[in-house]
Amino acid sequence: MTELIQVKNPATGEVIQEVKIDTEKEIYEALKRGNNYFQEWRNVNAYERSRLLKSWSQKIHDNKEKIAEVMTLESGKPLQESLGEVNYATSYIDWYAEEAKRLYGRTIPAASETKRIIVSKQPVGLVAAITPWNFPAAMMTRKAAPALAAGCTFIVKPAEETPLTTMKLVELAHEIGIPENAVQVINGRGSEVGPLFTESDFVRKITFTGSTPVGKSLIKNSADTVKHVSMELGGHAPLIVAEDAEIDVAVDQTIASKFRNAGQTCICANRVIVHDSITEEFVGKLTEKINKLKVGNGLKKDTQVGPVINEKGYDKIVSQINDAIDQGAEVLCGNRYDADKEQGYFFVHPTVLQHVDLDMKIMHEETFGPVIPITLFHDIDQAIEIANNTPFGLAAYFFTDNYKIGTYLHDHLDFGVIGWNDGAPSAAQAPFGGMKESGLGREGGVEGIEPYLETKYLSVGGL
Ligand code: NAP
Q1: CB distance 158 to 185 below 8 Å
Q2: Ligand 1, closest atom to CA 213?
Q3: Which of 53, 73, 118, 400 is 20 to 30 A (C-alpha) from 184?
């Protein structure tokens, strides 16, 4: 019997489309085709792979309004953000279309006149990707583009909530001539597809963006076949506002970082740590601006904060807010909801909590919602200790115009991505990824193609 995923609009709870779940046999066949085709795709010359990637990017641009609308319908994010994500997604394709031409090897002086030492790069093979719902386009392209550029074939399983954007991107890739077996999409439940990917001998690499517990299970399950793994996992970003910070900049960048995608991004500022001498001014200006944010259906032009993705996400946010309030946190704004469990829509109004302490759930569990907990510090080492005190190490932010404090913070914060007076640090040309339990490997920049390559060393003797 055909099983279907119901893709719902998180702003209304309505079913937008039903998508067929691929059977185990269909997934096996797709992996087999991807593996077989690898031998052909790796031999397509780098300039042709580059040309195909560029025309894929162009095709996505040509269809960006349509793609953005689909993304808003299935993920809930405001239309402007969806358009921004389409641009962000293509920036990875554009970057790796160029990197395809720069897969350099090297020669190394040998310790003998009769030898040559030559190092070259080759693609790892078929890559299987699993992506989350919060960035259905960009999380896919920042894996697919370097994989295809390196000469790997690629198969992706998108999140059940947001398969439509990914399916559209793959359809456009085929339309411009990227072969169907070079890039494929399959649909299914993560818990069922995961083992099919990790146990398959056809797959040489697993690349995953999603939660830390699922990432850990994929790493474990990849061990038996010794697959390459890249993991972009959860975060719990601290944002430190130092005594000398330009308050208006810090306020605007905190809002930009926190409320994008209704606070459902892995690098959202989750713990705001403010110097005690400036709290009043910072908090006053912050709450004044936050109170003006428009919450609503992402398709409406003036919406700035959309719904949260589903009931599970909503329940977690509400429980974190209630736990903080029960333990003495003060609500400065928000803590208002517009949700209907029957209909299936969940809006959380931007919330700011003060007098938060480190025992509260919100300070150590990843928060995926529009909530800012504020805690205070007096000396900078105290701020660093609070910031580093979780198992996560994805993104951190700090605001200061004092270069000594800035460089000290940079040196002591254990995070893979750091924004200094910058709440939006992601860029295709920069390596993105986490330390500690936030991940393994980097995506973006020159670092982002390396995980799709093997290094091969040739020693020529008897010369
Ligand atoms: P999730 O539950 O881990 O789901 C992400 C993907 O994994 C979905 O495609 C899901 O499929 C699949 N999945 C679920 N269980 C699986 C299993 N047992 N084996 C294999 N795949 C499985 O994460 P989420 O809560 O939806 O997404 C948000 C998380 O992603 C957050 O923790 C966030 O920080 C992280 N994230 C990290 C980055 C980064 O770059 N570091 C970027 C964005 C998001 P189904 O939809 O079928 O369940």
Answers
A1: yes
A2: 3
A3: 73
Residues 127 and 273 in one domain: no
339, amino acid identity: A
Q: Are the C-beta atoms of 322 and 288 separated by less than 8 Å?
A: no
The type of residue at 304 is Q
- 20 lies in the same domain as 135: yes
Question: Which pLDDT does position 1 carry in this prediction?
Answer: 80
Long-range Cβ contact pairs of 104-112 (< 8 A, separation 24 or more) = 110/459
* Confidence category of residue 95, pLDDT binned at 50, 70, 90: very high
Domain co-membership, 86 together with 67 = yes
Distance between CA atoms of residues 71 and 80, nearest Å: 11
Q: Is the pTM of this model over 0.90?
A: yes
Cβ 393 under 6 angstroms from ligand 1: no
Structure tokens at 311: 């009931």
- Ligand 1 contact via 221 beta carbon (within 6 Å): no
* CA-nearest residue, atom 11 of ligand 1: 190
The catalytic residue among 152, 266, 268, 333 is 266
Total domains in the chain come to: 2
337 phi and psi, to 5 degrees? -135, 150
Considering 85, 232, 366, 443, which one is annotated as catalytic?
Answer: 232
Atom of ligand 1 nearest to the CA of 212: 32
Residue 444, both tokens: 């973006």
Structural contact between residues 20 and 164, judged by C-beta atoms closer than 8 angstroms: no
317 within some domain: yes
* Whether residue 232 lies in the annotated active site: yes
14 has catalytic annotation: no
Q: Which of 160, 206, 214 has most ligand 1 atoms within 8 Å of its beta carbon, as the pocket-test mutant?
A: 214
CATH of the domain at 56: 3.40.605.10
Taking the centre of ligand 1 as the mean of its atom positions, its distance from the CA of residue 408, in whole angstroms, is 33
Nearest to 290 by CA among 333, 244, 248, 236: 333
Whether the per-residue pLDDT at 132 is higher than 90: the answer is yes
Domain range for residue 354? 237-427
| pLDDT score of 218 more than 90 | yes
Tokens representing residue 323 in the block: 């736990």
